[in-house]
Amino acid sequence: MKRYTVLVLIFISVSIVFFFFLNLVLGSVHIPLRSVWNIVCGSAEEPVVWQNIVWKSRVPQSITALVAGAGLSVSGLQMQTVFRNPLAGPSVLGISSGASLGVASVILLSGSIGGVALSKLGYIGEIALTIAATAGALSVMTLIVFVSQKVKGSVTLLIIGVMIGYVANAIIGVFKYFSVEEDIRAYVIWGLGSFARVSGNQMTLFIYIMIILLPLSFLLIKTLNLLLLGDGYAKNLGLNIKRARLYVISCSGVLTAIVTAYCGPVIFLGLAVPHLCRGLLRTSDHRVLMPAAVLTGSSLALLCNLIARMPGFEGALPVNSITALIGAPIVVYVLFSKRKNEMSE
């Protein structure tokens, strides 16, 4: 590995530690730096309120952002490689829309059918949302995997995925029309994305699932590098294209489904981070890009979470607003830089 690449990866790793600690220190409630350090080190001398804020709010939120950012970034990198499309992202196959449909079915229909708005059920409602989002996302992913075995071209599969997303959004629109205002508001808030929903046993389960899925995605590095060569060369080298596409889509789909279920449909991280990694490291080798995507996604998610709840805000800004504000300029800059380099050559 080149010295420049190693230095970049070290810098990103340091930024993760830096942003993680800032996430513990900064927030709507001011806690002195020394007090945060004492709380993290296990001191019981600090006020109980501060200890609860750090351990029950800021630490789970920071860990969730770190893990979710890594998962979405790896998913986006896989999608861009398998479809050879720079605008492909984790939600391109309609999996996020499937999760949204599952949540909409629970939130928007609960008040109309059961008479009790899910938004009033607290912790039980959060668990129901997670289960509904997981079921919806995995259902769409199962459909996509089935369709991928029937069609040959990646472009056709991409179009089908986009159409599934449109159908899901259309059904959600119908649900909204027949729902009460309170349920619609709860659904809109879920759709804005948040790293603050995961805590306690939910966070433990979320982390365990991602700890299993992320290392498994590294097993596809060789497959992804072969796919970059094109179907013809990959076949000559012994790669089963249909099976390889199935594995990559399944891995990316499950990562997207789990993150969306726990954090909502977080946008732009999965789209922007792969471009940022290619621009920084100047390579298409997934042996470098995959770990870089994990680290960069974690760092960027922590930065977005930090900005979303900077001091001065009583609550927290929508994460999707921050990821879009940061992610969109990154994608535009990288694409323009790439275009400029091609023209100069």
What does this structure look like?
By secondary structure, this protein is mainly α. The chain has helices at residues 3-25, 33-40, 48-83, 95-114, 123-148, 154-177, 181-191, 200-217, 221-228, 231-236, 241-263, 269-281, 286-308, 319-344.
> N-to-C SSE series?
HHHHHHHHHHHHHH
| Largest pleated sheet | none
Compute the number of strand runs: 0
N-end to C-end Cα span: 26 Å
Q: Given the C-alpha coordinates, what overall shape results?
A: globular
Based on CA atoms alone, the radius of gyration comes out at 21 Å
Low-pLDDT parts are 112-116
Binned, the helix content reads: over 70%
Structure class: mainly alpha
Strand content of the residues, in percent? under 5%
Mean pLDDT across the residues is 85
Number of helices: 14
Secondary structure elements and pairings:
Blueprint: H1 3-25, H2 33-40, H3 48-83, H4 95-114, H5 123-148, H6 154-177, H7 181-191, H8 200-217, H9 221-228, H10 231-236, H11 241-263, H12 269-281, H13 286-308, H14 319-344
Helix pairs in contact: 1-3, 1-13, 2-3, 3-8, 3-11, 3-12, 3-13, 4-5, 4-6, 4-7, 4-11, 5-6, 5-11, 8-11, 12-13, 12-14, 13-14
Features:
345 residues; 77% helix
Short description:
The protein has helices at 3-25, 33-40, 48-83, 95-114, 123-148, 154-177, 181-191, 200-217, 221-228, 231-236, 241-263, 269-281, 286-308, 319-344.
